[in-house]
Amino acid sequence: MCASGRVLLPKAHPIDGYDGSKRYVNFTASDCETNMCLVDHVSGLLPELCSKHKDAPCARESDVAARVCCTCRCDAPSADATCTCPCGYRCELAVEPTQPELAGSYCNKAE
């Protein structure tokens, strides 16, 4: 987990940017101990990617700093292993059951 609060750049991302009404769990975040990064209700592309995709809207840096972090699955509908969220994080539903292998709740920064 990124208890230090450092901001990460997910390796995979939507080409047109993130939909601000959704939560995304990225499973290719090599900067995270768990390889999982949560992007929570961020609109647009992360600022580091805006220069490569000039037609897509850019997310605000303050939103990225507040809403992108390492994560782990803290609750799952199956008997899969889960983690305990560290201090300053809470367990929140992030992936809907339409993706059973990913379904469950993930640790998110507490506001």
What is the topology?
Elements: E1 23-26, E2 37-40, H1 61-67, E3 68-70, E4 73-75, E5 89-95, E6 104-109
Antiparallel strand pairs: 1-2, 2-3, 4-6, 5-6
Observed structural traits:
mainly beta; 24% strand; three-stranded antiparallel sheet; 6 strands; 1 helix; 111 residues
Describe this structure in words.
Helix content is 6%, strand content 24%. A 3-stranded antiparallel sheet has the order 1-2-3. With 111 residues, it is mainly β. It has one domain.
* Sequence stretches where pLDDT stays below 50 over 5 or more residues: 1-6
Secondary-structure-based class equals mainly beta
Task: Provide the domain count.
Answer: 1
Gyration radius from CA atoms, angstroms? 14 Å
Strand order of the largest sheet: 1-2-3
Largest sheet: 3 strands, antiparallel
Q: Give the N-to-C terminal Cα separation.
A: 17 Å
Q: Note the beta-strand portion.
A: 15-25%
Could you give the count of β-strands? 6
Q: What's the helix count?
A: 1
Could you estimate the helical fraction of the residues in percent?
Answer: under 10%
